[in-house]
Amino acid sequence: MSDVVAVLWSDEPRRKPGPRPRFTIDDVVGAAIAIADAEGLDAVTMQRVADELGAAKMGVYRYVSAKEELAALMLDRALGDPPSAGTGPWQSQLRAWALAMHERMSARPWTLELTVGRRTPGPRELAWFEYGLAALRGTPLDGPDRMDVLAVLANHVRGGVQQEAGATEPEQALLESFQQVLAAHADRFPETVAAFAAAQESGRQDNALRFGIERILEGVTEYVARAGREA
């Protein structure tokens, strides 16, 4: 078992021999998350975490032997548990899944960096997969198809979080930055001017996340129906 697997999945708190510590593994992870929340993931170092805890650097190494382990623990705690399993249609369950994921990740955009590439999943991350796959259990979709549905939804959510990072009103901010240029060149970009104006008038700004989720679910609904007919 690798060190990352052990630290993520062990039921026993990990601590190397030595004097009784003044803090716990939860304190270490909490300090690292606080740093990432305030300054970004790059600011998280073993020394910085130790400073936050008022401890020596080697005190942190009694719990996590590398930043990879610490990052894995940070991600698992930041993701938290998925929504409570629903009993309604699979569409409503996946909608809740996607919106909850967006809420968690947009609160901590640094999680984007930790959910790409090869990594060891923790119990909470796998619980999110389990929720999504279970929602589709009663459909005719096989395992690969169900995983692809989750991947499409998750990628849409991730794209939204990335777009929103650093902006409280992404579409409004985009409109304001484009407004001067659009006013000066409205004749060249009439469709763009009209679309932005309509978005302002309708009040349907910052709706891309939900719009995308609904369109994805509509497409999957049709795919599920076709798979049922062909079964």
From TrEMBL:
UniProt entry tagged with the keyword GTP-binding: no
The HTH tetR-type domain, residue ranges: 22-82
Highest taxon above the source species: Bacteria
Residue ranges of DNA binding: 45-64
Molecular function terms from GO: DNA-binding transcription factor activity; transcription cis-regulatory region binding
The keyword Mitochondrion belongs to this UniProt entry's keyword annotation: no
Keywords: DNA-binding, Transcription, Transcription regulation
Gene Ontology BP terms: negative regulation of DNA-templated transcription
InterPro entries referenced in this protein's UniProt entry, alphabetically: Homeodomain-like_sf (IPR009057), HTH-type_TetR-like_transc_reg (IPR050109), HTH_TetR (IPR001647), Repressor_TetR_C (IPR004111), Tet_transcr_reg_TetR-rel_C_sf (IPR036271)
Entry-linked PANTHER family: HTH-TYPE TRANSCRIPTIONAL REGULATOR RUTR (PTHR30055), TRANSCRIPTIONAL REGULATORY PROTEIN (PTHR30055:SF151)
Protein name: AcrR family transcriptional regulator
Organism: Jiangella mangrovi
